[in-house]
Write a structure and sequence with these properties.
Blueprint lengths: L11 H15 L15 H4 L20 H6 L15 H8 L17 E8 L2 E7 L7 E6 L5 E4 L4 E5 L6 E8 L2 E2 L7 E3 L5 H40 L11
Antiparallel strand pairs: 1-2, 2-5, 3-4, 3-6, 6-7, 6-8
Length: 243
C-alpha cells in the first residue's frame, strides 16, 4: 500500500530551520554578501490555505452493524398464548431477541393468573408465563391434589369447582416449584342463579319486543296496500259507462 503524503504545511518549520542553518554556514564568504531567498507565501510552499485538512475522509471502509440491528428485534412471543412456541426456538430460527429469563437452575417465579371463566358447569383457568424457565405447570385447588400441565399450556379446564374455592397456578422446573405470588391465586365466584335468570329475562324481553315491532310494521304495510287496491277498483256497465 502507498504511504499517505503528509500535508505540506507540516514541513514548513523544518524548511525554515534548515534554511536558517544553511545561511549561517554559507553566507559569510569574504566580503561578498549573498542574498538568501526564503519563500514568503503559502503558494510558494505548496500549501493551500483554503483546504481543510481536518475534514479529509479516511479511505478505510468501516464495518457494518447489520448483525446488531438484526439481534435488536424482539421475538413475537406472547407469554399468555396457549401452546406458545418457546422463545428459544423462535430466536434460533429467526435470530430475534428473547426477553430475559432465569435459567433452569433457578426456582421459577410465580405465574400470573389472568382470569377464570365459567362455562356452564366447568371453569376455564387462564394464566401467563413468568420470566423463568418452566418445564411444567400445575393448577392447585385448595384441599385437592394439583393437576399437572405441560410447559406450553396457558389454560386449564376444571370441573366441579365450588364457590369460594381458592385456585392457584404454580410453575415447576428442575430447581423446584414457584412459591405463591401476588397474582398467582384467585377465589372462584360463580355467577349466581338470580343474575342468570335476569340475563335470560332481559334477552327474552328484547326478542319479544322486536317480534311485536315486526308484526306492527307488517300489519301497517298490509293495510296501506289494501287501501290502495280498493281505491282503484271501479265498476262498469255493459255499455262501458261507470256506475
Amino acid at each position: 500500500m502507498a504511504s499517505r503524503r503528509a500535508p505540506p504545511y507540516v514541513m514548513v518549520p523544518f524548511i525554515l530551520a534548515l534554511s536558517s542553518s544553511y545561511a549561517e554556514k554559507h553566507l559569510p564568504e569574504g566580503n561578498a554578501t549573498k542574498t538568501l531567498i526564503i519563500p514568503q507565501t503559502f503558494g510558494e510552499l505548496g500549501v493551500n490555505p483554503d483546504e481543510d485538512y481536518d475534514r479529509l475522509e479516511d479511505p478505510t471502509p468501516q464495518p457494518t452493524n447489520q448483525s446488531k440491528v438484526r439481534k435488536s428485534q424482539h421475538c413475537a412471543y406472547d407469554r399468555c398464548r396457549d401452546q406458545q412456541q418457546p422463545c428459544v426456538e423462535l430466536s434460533a430460527a429467526t435470530g430475534c431477541q428473547c426477553p430475559g429469563l432465569t435459567g433452569p437452575g433457578v426456582i421459577p417465579e410465580a405465574p400470573y393468573l389472568k382470569d377464570m371463566i365459567q362455562q356452564g358447569s366447568k371453569v376455564e383457568v387462564q394464566w401467563c408465563a413468568p420470566s423463568s424457565t418452566v418445564s411444567t405447570y400445575q393448577v392447585v385447588v385448595k384441599g385437592q391434589e394439583p393437576v399437572v400441565f405441560t410447559g406450553l399450556s396457558r389454560k386449564a379446564v376444571l370441573e366441579g369447582l365450588e364457590a369460594g374455592a381458592e385456585v392457584c397456578v404454580e410453575a415447576v422446573n428442575a430447581a423446584g416449584v414457584s412459591g405463591p405470588g401476588p397474582h398467582s391465586c384467585m377465589t372462584y365466584q360463580p355467577e349466581s342463579g338470580g343474575s342468570l335468570s335476569l340475563k335470560a329475562g332481559l334477552i327474552g324481553g328484547a326478542l319479544g319486543f322486536l317480534l311485536l315491532c315486526s308484526l306492527a310494521v307488517f300489519l301497517l304495510w298490509r293495510r296501506k296496500a289494501c287501501g290502495k287496491s280498493g281505491g282503484r277498483s271501479v265498476s262498469h256497465t255493459t255499455d262501458g259507462s261507470a256506475l
